[in-house]
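tool_call: predict_structure(chain=1)
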Amino acid sequence: MTRLFLALLLAGTVSGCLSLTRDTRSNALLEAGFDTMPEKYCTTDNSAAAKADWNNATVVEETVSNSRYESGLMTLWHEKPYIIRVTNNDDGDRSFRAPQFFRDVAILKGVYNSKSVDAPCINAVNLAPGAVAELHVVPLKKGDYDYHETGLWVPFAGEIFSTSDVGYISVH
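tool_result:
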Protein backbone atom coordinates (compact mmCIF):
# COMPACT_ATOMS: atom_id res chain seq x y z
CA MET A 1 0.00 0.00 0.00
CA THR A 2 2.83 2.39 0.88
CA ARG A 3 4.57 1.71 -2.43
CA LEU A 4 1.35 2.38 -4.34
CA PHE A 5 0.83 5.70 -2.52
CA LEU A 6 4.43 6.76 -3.17
CA ALA A 7 4.16 5.77 -6.83
CA LEU A 8 0.95 7.79 -7.26
CA LEU A 9 2.46 10.77 -5.45
CA LEU A 10 5.58 10.65 -7.63
CA ALA A 11 3.54 10.26 -10.84
CA GLY A 12 1.29 13.17 -9.90
CA THR A 13 4.22 15.40 -9.02
CA VAL A 14 6.12 14.60 -12.21
CA SER A 15 3.04 15.16 -14.35
CA GLY A 16 2.35 18.52 -12.72
CA CYS A 17 -1.05 17.44 -11.44
CA LEU A 18 -0.06 18.08 -7.85
CA SER A 19 1.60 21.43 -8.42
CA LEU A 20 1.21 23.64 -5.38
CA THR A 21 1.40 26.80 -7.47
CA ARG A 22 -1.50 26.36 -9.86
CA ASP A 23 -2.72 29.58 -11.37
CA THR A 24 -6.28 30.14 -12.51
CA ARG A 25 -5.90 33.81 -13.46
CA SER A 26 -2.86 33.80 -15.78
CA ASN A 27 -0.66 35.57 -13.23
CA ALA A 28 2.93 34.38 -13.26
CA LEU A 29 3.57 32.92 -9.82
CA LEU A 30 6.77 31.67 -8.30
CA GLU A 31 7.25 28.19 -6.87
CA ALA A 32 7.05 29.74 -3.42
CA GLY A 33 4.20 32.25 -3.38
CA PHE A 34 0.44 32.06 -3.67
CA ASP A 35 -1.30 28.72 -3.83
CA THR A 36 -4.38 29.53 -5.87
CA MET A 37 -7.67 27.68 -6.14
CA PRO A 38 -10.54 27.72 -8.63
CA GLU A 39 -12.51 30.97 -8.56
CA LYS A 40 -15.78 29.17 -7.78
CA TYR A 41 -14.48 28.79 -4.21
CA CYS A 42 -13.68 32.49 -3.74
CA THR A 43 -15.50 35.73 -3.21
CA THR A 44 -15.91 37.13 -6.69
CA ASP A 45 -17.12 40.55 -5.58
CA ASN A 46 -13.98 42.35 -4.45
CA SER A 47 -15.67 45.78 -4.54
CA ALA A 48 -15.31 46.16 -0.75
CA ALA A 49 -11.54 45.86 -1.17
CA ALA A 50 -11.51 48.24 -4.13
CA LYS A 51 -13.45 50.90 -2.17
CA ALA A 52 -11.47 50.56 1.08
CA ASP A 53 -9.25 53.34 2.41
CA TRP A 54 -5.90 51.55 2.22
CA ASN A 55 -4.05 54.56 3.62
CA ASN A 56 -5.74 53.82 6.95
CA ALA A 57 -5.59 50.03 6.80
CA THR A 58 -4.42 48.21 9.90
CA VAL A 59 -1.27 46.14 9.44
CA VAL A 60 -1.38 42.77 11.20
CA GLU A 61 1.97 40.99 11.54
CA GLU A 62 2.49 37.24 11.77
CA THR A 63 5.92 35.63 11.80
CA VAL A 64 6.90 32.00 11.50
CA SER A 65 9.96 31.07 13.61
CA ASN A 66 11.03 27.61 14.77
CA SER A 67 7.99 26.11 12.98
CA ARG A 68 5.63 28.22 15.10
CA TYR A 69 3.46 31.24 14.52
CA GLU A 70 4.75 33.89 16.91
CA SER A 71 1.40 35.64 17.37
CA GLY A 72 -1.08 32.85 16.74
CA LEU A 73 -4.04 35.21 17.12
CA MET A 74 -5.54 37.82 14.81
CA THR A 75 -8.54 39.92 15.82
CA LEU A 76 -10.15 41.69 12.87
CA TRP A 77 -13.33 43.69 12.32
CA HIS A 78 -15.67 42.90 9.49
CA GLU A 79 -15.72 45.36 6.55
CA LYS A 80 -12.47 47.08 7.63
CA PRO A 81 -9.27 46.92 5.52
CA TYR A 82 -6.26 44.96 6.75
CA ILE A 83 -2.81 44.23 5.44
CA ILE A 84 -1.81 40.85 6.82
CA ARG A 85 1.98 40.59 6.62
CA VAL A 86 3.46 37.11 7.07
CA THR A 87 7.23 36.66 7.42
CA ASN A 88 9.13 33.37 7.35
CA ASN A 89 12.13 33.55 9.69
CA ASP A 90 12.80 29.80 9.46
CA ASP A 91 15.51 28.11 7.40
CA GLY A 92 12.95 26.00 5.53
CA ASP A 93 9.83 26.68 3.47
CA ARG A 94 6.67 27.47 5.45
CA SER A 95 3.04 28.12 4.57
CA PHE A 96 0.16 30.23 5.80
CA ARG A 97 -2.96 28.26 4.89
CA ALA A 98 -6.39 29.69 5.74
CA PRO A 99 -8.76 28.46 3.01
CA GLN A 100 -12.06 29.24 4.76
CA PHE A 101 -10.89 32.71 5.76
CA PHE A 102 -9.74 33.46 2.20
CA ARG A 103 -13.18 32.42 0.91
CA ASP A 104 -14.87 34.96 3.21
CA VAL A 105 -12.78 38.05 2.44
CA ALA A 106 -12.48 40.49 -0.43
CA ILE A 107 -8.86 40.47 -1.57
CA LEU A 108 -7.48 43.57 -3.26
CA LYS A 109 -4.07 42.05 -3.88
CA GLY A 110 -1.36 39.82 -2.59
CA VAL A 111 2.30 40.82 -2.52
CA TYR A 112 5.06 38.22 -2.36
CA ASN A 113 8.62 39.53 -2.00
CA SER A 114 7.56 42.84 -3.60
CA LYS A 115 5.73 41.18 -6.53
CA SER A 116 2.05 42.13 -6.63
CA VAL A 117 -0.80 39.89 -7.79
CA ASP A 118 -4.22 41.57 -8.15
CA ALA A 119 -7.26 39.98 -6.47
CA PRO A 120 -5.91 36.45 -6.27
CA CYS A 121 -8.18 33.55 -5.41
CA ILE A 122 -5.87 31.96 -2.89
CA ASN A 123 -5.85 28.96 -0.62
CA ALA A 124 -2.48 29.60 1.03
CA VAL A 125 0.76 31.51 0.89
CA ASN A 126 3.91 29.40 0.54
CA LEU A 127 6.94 31.21 1.94
CA ALA A 128 10.57 30.52 1.13
CA PRO A 129 13.11 31.16 3.91
CA GLY A 130 13.27 34.90 4.65
CA ALA A 131 10.25 35.64 2.42
CA VAL A 132 7.55 38.18 3.24
CA ALA A 133 3.97 38.13 1.93
CA GLU A 134 1.26 40.75 2.31
CA LEU A 135 -2.45 40.14 1.86
CA HIS A 136 -4.67 43.21 1.41
CA VAL A 137 -8.05 41.97 2.63
CA VAL A 138 -11.44 43.17 3.83
CA PRO A 139 -13.31 40.56 5.91
CA LEU A 140 -16.87 40.20 4.60
CA LYS A 141 -18.25 37.82 7.24
CA LYS A 142 -18.02 37.61 10.99
CA GLY A 143 -16.66 34.33 12.25
CA ASP A 144 -13.76 32.31 13.54
CA TYR A 145 -11.10 30.78 11.31
CA ASP A 146 -7.90 28.84 11.73
CA TYR A 147 -4.64 29.24 9.87
CA HIS A 148 -1.84 26.73 9.82
CA GLU A 149 1.05 25.28 7.96
CA THR A 150 0.38 22.25 5.84
CA GLY A 151 2.86 19.42 5.47
CA LEU A 152 1.06 17.99 2.46
CA TRP A 153 -1.88 19.45 0.58
CA VAL A 154 -3.11 17.78 -2.59
CA PRO A 155 -5.61 19.38 -4.99
CA PHE A 156 -8.98 17.59 -4.95
CA ALA A 157 -7.93 15.57 -1.89
CA GLY A 158 -7.24 18.48 0.44
CA GLU A 159 -4.96 18.70 3.40
CA ILE A 160 -3.20 15.53 4.44
CA PHE A 161 -1.56 16.83 7.65
CA SER A 162 -0.35 19.98 9.39
CA THR A 163 3.26 20.25 10.48
CA SER A 164 3.20 23.27 12.73
CA ASP A 165 1.20 25.39 15.09
CA VAL A 166 -2.33 26.45 14.37
CA GLY A 167 -3.28 30.12 14.56
CA TYR A 168 -6.70 31.67 15.08
CA ILE A 169 -8.47 34.54 13.29
CA SER A 170 -11.53 36.09 14.90
CA VAL A 171 -13.58 38.48 12.79
CA HIS A 172 -16.02 40.60 14.86
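agent: The helical segments are 2-15, 47-51, 99-103. Proceeding to next step.
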